[in-house]
């Protein structure tokens, strides 16, 4: 027994109506139905955080949410971070500058996790940042670069640099 | 790693949810935050035919401090405790423990009702429900019933909840002057290898009505009644706390697994109980305590 569900969802400011099997996860909805393959899947059971996206502004594991649960919600994925002209956000630029990625598999998840941190607490306190990013796994960087990048982006938000990057 | 097929219904009211769960024809399961059920579905450890999504039910998301203690709605998310804006006079151990549950993106969705129904023996809410003598209100087509948390957890992921019952409210009847939870986990956010929660009041410089509850030492939270008896009536000093810790180590029969052999768990339990008792005694419960 299985029915399809029709739902409306706003992703990165664009609204979509889709009809999918109820068991479609948000991660697969984004990747397979909407073609937004920036959201990655690692473990598919909530442990690694590679699939982290924002739902109504809050970080969630997209592999642990079924598509019908986001009916009417606003979703932000890694594709929604860069500006219109594809200019990297300050957070993305900080990841590049601080060498916060190597293979890049975990990066979309860490970016969305960090985006949630910047929007909510925005603290550049290293301890707080470490606790927050401990949510996700990276098998390459050893985390130091990721922590530095988030701290640096948080500092920039508090005292923006002159070129006005946001 | 994809879940098996199921039918999905979003309940608009408690009555509708209960009616959907009551059907004899389909094997139905409640979906709340999905932070335990969805991993189990993805791993195909469970195959319900129908998921009844209660996530948007109105009126089940509250933390209410009143004359009769604290009432918490079943859909209250872990992070609502973490960010609760005021002291919970006598129940602050709930606020202090919330950040220990998983990671931020788990706490934005996971609910207290889901945690209790899932019944993991090292889950913070399960331990604290036993510690604070909570009662759980569950409704079904047969009406509503109130279940004591002490006795609710039967075994591995097994509770006395019937498959057609929906948890709606958790009642913590009695504020405690002193309470704390200490745990050891390999990484922040992991389930605790061992967790120890304690609560007591002090009258005429004597400990009264102590509670000591351990997680991670059995399939359910374990109340250590022998250790409670050791502490009862003593003055709240390090000597008494050490004796209680030793009594806990004698009383429990922890399992061994790849995280820790029984002896390590026993020692951890001893030390965590002492630490929790000390912190509970030190904390000034009149004010806000963010210890831990
Ligand atoms: C990576 C990770 C780490 C975690 N770490 C921890 C941790 O350290 N400590 C901890 O305690 N938990 C941890 N969790 C589990 C998390 O706290 C879950 O949120 C919680 O166990 C279940 O709540 P839920 O609302 O997500 O329930 P769901 O997953 O929706 O449901 C869980 C079970 O409860 C039933 N159910 C749900 N709500 C009700 C209700 N109102 N009435 C009747 N039945 C109901 C469901 O049918 C299902 O069987 C972790 C989870 C993950 C993915
Ligand atoms: S893929 Fe979602 S947490 Fe690993
Ligand atoms: S950069 Fe390779 S997993 Fe993080």
What is the terminal separation of chain A in angstroms? Answer: 48 Å
Shape of chain B: globular
Low-confidence stretches of chain A: none
Classify the beta-strand content of chain A into a percent band: 15-25%
Mean pLDDT of chain A: 94
Count the strands of chain B? Answer: 14
Q: Which percent bin holds the helix content of chain A?
A: 25-40%
| Shape label of chain A | globular
Bound heterogens, unique: flavin-adenine dinucleotide, FE2/S2 (inorganic) cluster
Q: If helices are DSSP runs of H or I spanning 4 or more residues, what is the number of helices of chain A? A: 5
The largest interface is: A-B, 33 and 32 residues
Q: Supply the CATH architecture of the largest domain in chain B.
A: 2-Layer Sandwich
Give the terminus-to-terminus CA distance of chain B: 36 Å
Low-pLDDT segments of chain B: 285-292
Strand order of the largest sheet of chain A: 2-1-5-3-4
**What Rg of chain A is obtained from the alpha carbons, in whole angstroms?**
16 Å
What's the total helix number of chain B?
10
Mean pLDDT of chain B: 95
Biggest sheet features of chain B: 5 strands, antiparallel
SSE pattern of chain A: EEHEEEHHHH
């Amino acid at each position: 027994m299985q029915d399809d569900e029709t739902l409306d969802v706003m992703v990165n400011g664009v609204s979509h109506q889709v009809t999918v099997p109820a068991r479609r996860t948000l991660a697969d909805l984004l990747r397979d139905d909407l073609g937004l393959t920036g959201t990655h899947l690692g473990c598919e059971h909530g442990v690694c955080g590679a699939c982290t996206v924002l739902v109504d502004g809050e970080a969630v594991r997209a592999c642990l949410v079924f598509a019908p649960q986001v009916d009417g919600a606003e979703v932000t994925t890694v594709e929604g971070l860069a500006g219109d002209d594809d200019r990297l956000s300050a957070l993305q630029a900080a990841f590049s500058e601080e060498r916060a990625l190597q293979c890049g598999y975990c990066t979309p998840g860490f970016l969305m996790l960090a985006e949630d941190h910047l929007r909510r607490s925005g603290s550049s306190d290293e301890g707080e940042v470490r606790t927050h990013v401990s949510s996700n796994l990276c098998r390459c960087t050893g985390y130091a670069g990721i922590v530095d990048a988030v701290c640096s982006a948080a500092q920039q938000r508090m005292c923006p640099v002159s070129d006005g990057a946001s | 790693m994809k879940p098996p097929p199921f039918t999905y219904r979003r309940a608009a009211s408690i009555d509708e949810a209960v009616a959907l769960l009551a059907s004899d024809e389909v094997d139905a399961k409640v979906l709340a935050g999905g932070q335990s059920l969805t991993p189990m579905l993805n791993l195909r450890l469970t195959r319900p035919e129908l998921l009844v999504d209660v996530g948007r039910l109105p009126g089940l998301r509250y933390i209410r401090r009143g004359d009769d203690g604290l009432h918490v709605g079943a859909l209250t998310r872990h992070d609502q405790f973490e960010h609760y804006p005021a002291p919970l006079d006598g129940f602050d151990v709930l606020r202090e423990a919330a950040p220990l549950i998983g990671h931020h993106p788990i706490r934005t969705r996971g609910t207290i009702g889901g945690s209790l129904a899932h019944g993991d023996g090292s889950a913070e809410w399960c331990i604290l429900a036993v510690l604070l003598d909570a009662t759980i209100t569950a409704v079904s087509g047969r009406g509503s019933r109130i279940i004591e948390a002490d006795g609710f957890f039967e075994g591995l992921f097994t509770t006395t909840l019937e498959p057609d019952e929906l948890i709606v409210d958790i009642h913590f009847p009695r504020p405690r002057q002193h309470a704390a939870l200490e745990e050891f986990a390999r990484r922040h956010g992991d389930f605790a290898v061992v967790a120890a929660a304690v609560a007591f009041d002090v009258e005429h410089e004597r400990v009264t009505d102590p509670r000591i509850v351990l997680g991670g030492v059995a399939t359910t939270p374990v109340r250590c009644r022998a250790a409670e008896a050791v502490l009862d009536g003593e003055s709240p000093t390090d000597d008494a706390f050490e004796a209680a810790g030793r009594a806990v180590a004698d009383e429990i029969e922890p399992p061994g697994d790849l995280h820790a052999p029984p002896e390590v768990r026993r020692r951890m339990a001893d030390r965590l109980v002492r630490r929790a008792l000390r912190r509970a005694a030190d904390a000034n419960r009149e004010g806000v305590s963010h210890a831990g």
